[in-house]
Structure formats: structure tokens, C-alpha cells
Amino acid sequence: MATTPTPTAAKTAGPPPRSVLRDPAFLRLWAGTTASGLATWALPFVLGLAVLHRDLGAAGLGLVLAARTLGFLAAVAVGGVLADRHSRRAVVLWSALAAAVATPLIAAGLGRSLVLMTAAAALAGAGQGACRPAFQALTAETVEPGRRQQANAAMTMAVRGSTLAGPALTALLAAFLDVGALLLGIGLLWLAAALIPGKGTAAAAGAATAAGATGAEPARGAAPAPRAGFRAEFLEGMREARRHPWFLAGLAALVTVIALGYSATSVALPLISRDRYGTEWVLAAAVTAYTVGALGGALVIARWRPRSPGWAAFAGLAAYGLAPLSLMLPVHPVAVVAAYAVAGIGIELFNVPWFTATQREVAPDKLARVSSLDFLVSYGLAPVGLALIAPAIEAFGVTAVLGACAGACFLVPAAAALVPTGRHFGRTSAPATH
User: Fold this and answer.
1) pLDDT tens digit sequence for 105-142
2) How many whole angstroms separate alpha carbon 402 and alpha carbon 408?
3) How many other CB atoms sit within 10 Å of the CB of residue 220?
4) What is the C-alpha separation between 212 and 321, in angstroms, rounded?
5) Which of 193, 213, 299, 396 is the most buried (most CB within 10 A)?
6) Is the pTM of this model over 0.85?
7) Under DSSP, is residue 162 helix (H, G, I), strand (E, B) or coil?
8) What is the per-residue pLDDT across 316-357, written as a single tens digit (0 to 9) for each?
9) How far apart are CA 71 and CA 278, in angstroms?
């Protein structure tokens, strides 16, 4: 039976010899991931500009974005299996190329064929979905264990930075380029995501050695076992996930915060900004504060190593409850903005250790499949939450719904922290090893 490596070795090892930002292999991976994240964010924003320019109707926008989401959900599980079967680098290459090809097709259909746009958006979403677990596994291959938390923090800082600066940059480009040209630019970003990352470095060899030691892969020189079917391999990844109670508990807490807390605030914040405060400033300031807070949280967790990383991460995730709580109470708008900033800090205090622990604890040959399960569940249930929140607000009132969602954001992560292995996000040795 495969055993899960303990984090003890990472604690007893000496400090990393240099910053991960000075590692050329990681910088290539970081640049590719950043390009894919920027392309993912930019597509709905640019299509929104198409609606403003009357090149696309509101119903058409909804159909195209729904097709992209469905493509993502369909491909993320497939991508996880493929990334564990084959080279993670090859999966990144072909999935990003698929998205790169799909984006000009969206531009070609703009104002001409909604059917073409919808099909191309589904292909773009599939490329995005297949990329995600492959990038997660490729990070573990490229970066040695002692520097992965710093690497994951750098990745999330790039994503948050794109979210913060992207709207202003896109609006500036829109003054000189039409929507079709902007869509072609998104295709170039996907092309960069496909071509820039390199293969895993020596860390990949270490991961393979660890996998062989734990029984995850056949010994060198032995005849390879015949491949199981796709469904069997996906179920094998689910069994691997079930071996880690902290992972299941963390996934349940994350889905609760996304499907309830994030969905509730997405619907309620514009309403409360307009009706209670009579200005759009609160909406803009709160969203900006959340992103700035997330950047700050990533900076903190890049260097902070709490004694109980799981508990610290769950506390950070629970901090999102402050956002719906601030909207529920008749507080000064500055308090709402501050609550969103704290929520942003907290979400990265969870995300970075969560990704790092998954890369450390999960058997290397099953990492992409477990990561795909993470993305599949969290992204898959988010639209369900958004669809249910508005009817719930109409039925029970915004205060009751926000109160229930805030309570869930506080209580579910607290309960998740109590599960076995939840304190450290993995099995640990005696406290003396600290």
C-alpha cells in the first residue's frame, strides 16, 4: 500500500539555498501560468465590451460564458487523468494550444455566428480546464519541496495582480483596438502559456523516486503494469483523495465558502452598495480591497510558516465570513471595505498552504487527478450557489440569507479544522520534530 510522505523532512531540512524567483525553470512555469490566468480572466471582460459595442447580445454573452464553463468542467477531470498518464508538460502544451486556437474562432464568430462562438468557447474552456491540474502537478515537478510554498504564493500573486491591473490595461487597449483584436491578443496569451513552460527539473526525478518508494509506481526495470481505463483511473484518484481526511474536510469548507459566502456577496454587494449607501463606490472599493488583501496575504504566507498550518489556513478561510457579515449589518462603508480586505488576506492564507500540502502529501503519480477533483468540485458547485442565492434572497430577505451564509463560512472551516490530520494538513511525527 502506498504511504503518504510526512512533512517532517521539510521541517528538518535546512533553509532553501536561494529564492525560487531566481530559478529559471520556475520563472518559465510562472510566466506560462500567469499568461493562462490572464487569458482566463480577460475573455469574459472582453466579451462584456462586445456587449457594450452591440456586437453581442446579453443572452448571447450568457450562452457563450456558460459553454466555456461547461467545457472547463468536462475537461478538468480528463486533464487530471491525462496529466497523470502522460507528460504534464505535454498536457499543458496541447490544452493551451486548444484554447489558443479557439479564441480566434470566437473572434471570427463575433457578430456573425453565435453557434461558432459557443462551440469555440466550449473548446477554450476545455483547454483551460485541462491546463489547471497539469500546471499544479508540473509545479511539484519543477520546484523542490522546501520552496513550494513560496512558489505557490508567487503564482497566486500573479493571478491577483492580473485581476487588479487587468481591467485598467484592457480598457486602455480598447481605446486603440477593437474587440476582435483583443480576442486575438487573448489567443496569443494562450500561445505563450503553451510554449513558455519547460519540463520538470531534478525535482521531478525526486518525485518519481518518492513514488517508487511508496509503491505508487513500479520499480525501475520492472515491466509496466497495463493501464486501467479512464474511469478506473479517475476513481483511483478519488480513492487517493479519500485517504487524506484533511483534504476532504478542506474541500468541503472551500466549497461552502465559494457556493454560499462568495455567491451571496456577489449578488448582495451591488444591491447594498446601491440601496443602502447610494453609490457604486462601495462596490468598487470592496472588490479592489479584496484583491489587494489577497496580494498582501500571498506576501505574508510566502515566508510565514505557522506551527499549525492547517489551523491557520482554516482560520484564514473562515475570515471570508466577515464579508457577508459586514453587508448584513448597518455599518459605515469603510467597515465593509475593511472586511473585504481581511477576507482577501484570509483566502490566500488558505489557498497557498492548501496547494502546497496537496503537492506534498498526495502520491506524485496521482497528484493531477486529485487536483482536478479540487477544481471540479469547487468550480462546479459555484454556479449552483449563484443560481440559488437570488431566489433565496427574494424568499427570506437579504439579511437572513447573508446571516446564514456568514454563519456557514465561520462554522464549516472550524469543523473542518477538527478532523484528523487537519491541524497540519497531513500526517506528522511527534511534536519534537518541530
Assistant:
1) 999 999 899 999 999 999 999 999 999 999 999 999 99
2) 10
3) 8
4) 42
5) 193
6) no
7) helix
8) 999 999 999 999 999 999 999 999 999 999 999 999 999 999
9) 39
